[in-house]
Amino acid sequence: VEARMPQKLSRLDYTVLETPFAAGCAPFDTEAFLNAWWWDYAYEEIRDDRSLAFRQYWYKGESYRYTLLVRAEMPGEYTILPAHLWGMYAPYQAHSNGFKLRILGN
């Protein structure tokens, strides 16, 4: 996921980036997962079905890349929900597009 600050805003404080995991997938290795982030976050949470990263400040023109490492555990076709970026204390929201993922068995 690559998040970019909208040009019409000069600054946005206290944001959350929520990235759902596909069904049939789980974080590959929590330590490797956290070390692979390109997101300059203040706090993070990894849950069974999603990850959340909290950032304190964004300035006009900034963009951040967020890398997600997951392991496929169950074969099947899954719909991945959109990533969601929102302001904790401001009326701002942005969503990515969802997509389908096919995990093939042996």
Report mean pLDDT, rounded to a whole number: 77
H/E element sequence: EEEHEEEEEEEE
Question: Which class of secondary structure composition applies to the elements?
Answer: mainly beta
Strand content: over 45%
Question: How much helicity do the residues have?
Answer: under 10%
Number of strands: 11
Gross morphology is elongated
Number of helices: 1
Give the strand order, joined by hyphens, for the main sheet: 4-5-2-9-10
Biggest sheet details: 5 strands, antiparallel
Uncertain parts: none
Over all CA atoms, what is the radius of gyration? 15 Å
- Give the termini separation: 29 Å
Describe the 3D structure.
It is a single chain. With 106 residues, this protein is mainly beta. The protein contains 1 helix and 11 strands. The protein has one helix at 30-35, and strands at 2-4, 11-20, 25-27, 43-46, 50-59, 63-65, 70-72, 76-80, 84-87, 93-95, 99-103. Strands 4-5-2-9-10 form a 5-stranded antiparallel β-sheet, with no helix packed on it. Strand 9 (84-87) and strand 10 form a beta hairpin. The longest helix is centred in the first third of the chain and has 6 residues, at 30-35. The model has no long low-confidence stretch (mean pLDDT 77).
